[in-house]
Amino acid sequence: RKEVEQDPGPFNVPEGATVAFNCTYSNSASQSFFWYRQDCRKEPKLLMSVYSSGNEDGRFTAQLNRASQYISLLIRDSKLSDSATYLCVVKLGGQNFVFGPGTRLSVLP
Amino acid sequence: EPEVTQTPSHQVTQMGQEVILRCVPISNHLYFYWYRQILGQKVEFLVSFYNNEISEKSEIFDDQFSVERPDGSNFTLKIRSTKLEDSAMYFCASRDGTGGNSPLHFGNGTRLTVT
């Protein structure tokens, strides 16, 4: 089983839509969780950390379910500028941050 | 906002040649990383570095690879004898290490093309 798995995508949604991304991780000792976004041929950029109680940042909501080893990201009222690849990132017990394969989102006018 | 900077942005080299990729992490950060991303594939961990030594490395990081922090600001990745399959985007990252949950901050990458 892969360490971090994500919805294969791509997701094509109209502007204003709500879209949800899912991520699962295999190592129950994983400590920290993040969502990054990556634009084509650019570096990953931190979107938000994911906390146990769930957290929200504007139109973005992240949830963590440790029992199910599952992380989600919800984007409300999607904008054209949200088009990117969304990367689920899990920090294991040491220093290694493991990246999922990413889910590509295209927001269409 | 402080940034991680990487040079060069693009490096073209011939197979068998040595390359050095350079990074300047954010100044108060304690942990430094190299990742690579082959075109169309996922971001892969190479190595982490803390307190002037390698703290973890992946299977990719074999004897052809080495890292160094030659002074108080630079962090370099050397590939001794490049192979065609080393062609990828190489990202440097750093984090401050305060608490266990500090995120990675990435530089804008060096695109390495091995011909």
Describe it for me?
The complex is a heterodimer of chains A (109) and B (115). Chain A is mostly beta strands. Chain A has strands spanning 4-6, 11-14, 19-25, 32-38, 45-50, 55-57, 60-65, 70-75, 84-91, 97-99, 103-108. In chain A, 0% of the residues lie in helices and 54% in strands. Chain A is globular. The mean pLDDT of chain A is 94. Chain B is mostly beta strands and 115 residues long. Chain B is built from no helices and 11 strands. Chain B has strands at 5-7, 10-13, 19-24, 31-37, 44-50, 53-57, 65-68, 75-79, 88-95, 105-106, 110-114. In chain B, the strands form 2 sheets. In chain B, strands 2, 4, 5, 6, 9, 10 and 11 form a 7-stranded mixed sheet that branches. Chain B has a 4-stranded antiparallel sheet with strand order 1-3-8-7, with no helix packed on it. The chains are: A mainly beta (109), B mainly beta (115).
What gyration radius of chain B follows from the Cα positions, in whole Å? 13 Å
**End-to-end C-alpha gap of chain B:** 37 Å
Number of helices of chain B: 0
Helix-strand string of chain B: EEEEEEEEEEE
Given helix and strand content, the structural type of chain B is mainly beta
Supply the key terms.
heterodimer; A: 109 residues; mainly beta; 6-stranded mixed β-sheet; 5-stranded antiparallel β-sheet; 0% helix; 54% strand; B: 115 residues; 7-stranded mixed β-sheet; 4-stranded antiparallel β-sheet; 11 strands; globular
Helices and strands, with pairings:
The complex is a heterodimer of chains A (109) and B (115).
Chain A: E1 4-6, E2 11-14, E3 19-25, E4 32-38, E5 45-50, E6 55-57, E7 60-65, E8 70-75, E9 84-91, E10 97-99, E11 103-108
Parallel strand pairs in A: 2-11
Antiparallel strand pairs in A: 1-3, 3-8, 4-5, 4-9, 6-7, 7-8, 9-10, 9-11
Chain B: E1 5-7, E2 10-13, E3 19-24, E4 31-37, E5 44-50, E6 53-57, E7 65-68, E8 75-79, E9 88-95, E10 105-106, E11 110-114
Parallel strand pairs in B: 2-11
Antiparallel strand pairs in B: 1-3, 3-8, 4-5, 4-9, 5-6, 7-8, 9-10, 9-11
